[in-house]
Amino acid sequence: MATPAFDRVSVLMNSEGSITEFDRLRFERDFYLGLLELNDREDPETFLEEAVGLIVRVLGAGQGYLEVSDPQGPQDGRSPRLTTAPSADGRTWWRAAGCSDEQVELIRSIVSRGIIAEALALGEVIHCPSAILDPRFRDRPSVQASKIETVLCVPIVRATPVGVLYLQGRPGGGSFCEREIDRAKTFARHLGPLIEGLFMRSRQRPADHVAPYRKRLSLNDIVGTSAALAAVLHEVELVAPLDVAVLITGETGTGKTQLARIIHDNGPRRGRPFVALNCSAFQDNLVESELFGSTSGAFTGATRRTGLVGSAQGGTLFLDEVGLLSPTAQGKLLTFLNTREYFPLGSTELHTADVRLIAATNSDLQEDVREKRFRADLLYRLQVLGIRIPSLAERPEDIAPLAVHLCDRAHRTHRLAHVVLSPGALRAIEAAQWGGNVRELASAIERAAIHVAASGSTIIEAKDIFRESASSSLPPQREPLTFQEETRRFQAGVIQRALEAADWNVTAAARELDLTRAHVHNLIKAFGLSRRRKST
Known about the structure:
The protein has four domains: 5-204, Beta-Lactamase; 211-388, P-loop containing nucleotide triphosphate hydrolases (Rossmann fold), CATH 3.40.50; 394-469, Helicase, Ruva Protein, domain 3 (Orthogonal Bundle), CATH 1.10.8.60; 483-527. The protein contains 22 helices and 14 strands. It has helices at 21-38, 44-59, 101-109, 114-122, 141-146, 178-204, 211-216, 227-239, 256-265, 284-292, 308-311, 327-339, 365-370, 376-382, 399-413, 423-431, 437-455, 462-465, 467-472, 483-501, 506-513, 517-527; strands spanning 63-69, 92-97, 126-128, 151-157, 161-168, 246-249, 274-278, 316-320, 341-342, 351-352, 356-361, 385-388, 420-421, 459-460. The protein has a five-stranded antiparallel β-sheet with strand order 2-1-5-4-3, with helices on both faces. A five-stranded parallel β-sheet has the order 7-8-11-6-12. Helix 20 (483-501) crosses helix 21 and helix 20 (483-501) crosses helix 22. The two termini are 42 Å apart.
């Protein structure tokens, strides 16, 4: 990156201490080069940092403060208003140079009153050789408190004020001369159009709602900029430091395990064990031994082993699909949450463990409680704080960058030749429905990357992502079916249509079919049903 022009600005004195004509011309050249380079800055923070640094160097000021506001103002049609900090909608920004934290706070505190307020109200430059002696400002508490001497305040005006430049103090003492005041005016005049261009470009870019959380949290592998994702990270920032149970809810494939890991990595137990158990992966009689361990002979084939609760000592235990725990396991888990004590299966020896519990489910535990499949008292203990992860359909602006990230991950994981998604593939991915959310998207892209890399190509097209859809468009070769197979297909069609009509709300579909929710879940698994994608 080129060195900012303000770093090249220098004033060379002759032996009498005055500026030579050659040096004055070079000075002016570097000043205008600095202004031209500002036009290339895309980030408001970088733009302001370099701009205020340039003018402080050019005028030899002790401290400088620059604040700008989007000329178009808020979306509600009100006039733009300068504030003391970046606004909530990201339309107002400020930067300071040569100031301590205390001096910045003081300058920001007088943005809406005093010298700066008067410059904005009048639309005129204010120059005070000594603010503490100026009858207009000497009685103001901020001026008295800091014993402010020379001040130069220049409004940046287009149709309305869009910014303010505030310069204070000279390292060698004295006030700003007429030529320096003219340069400050020139600076402000040229800065106006640059500010308009900067905010025009920023308005054309999608807002990154997640950026503030990336600065404050450790967010490995989190991709996206949506407000929906930012809302989740806001909850993470709240719950991570607290040693309380958390229940993560959301559709299958949304990344609940990843979110649990992020909570762990940003909490006081970071660096200690993070142990995960998928409760659906074990039979009821084995989940208890997985959780709490067992002794030899506790059941057929049992050996003495430490359970996951013991393995997570000092760290975090994550229980995925917690709604599938058996009633017995639920009771033991509740006892452990209440006392932090447990008995390994087949043992009379009491054990104690210090672990944080995070649980997750894609089912409606409130409905399970009503249908007596899940203990209400356990739900209350698990859901001290709850976080719901939105589906991909709820954050569509994240789908394309997520697809690019997953493509790159597949390339690195499998050491494939480098492949990229074509624009057409990205548009098709954005338009498709991903009922399995991130997991389904990742699987489709990984499969496509492997096939495309093996073919020697480097571009993934839409047909590579939706291979099954393409093949299903061919006329099927129908063979005679048995009565049982015809009946099975008919039942599968009835269940599929009910689920689609209920937007895949299993409880609602079960109610419409006059079946239990558990029976519908079993039929979904038996028939291999899944949410259908809309055609692209």
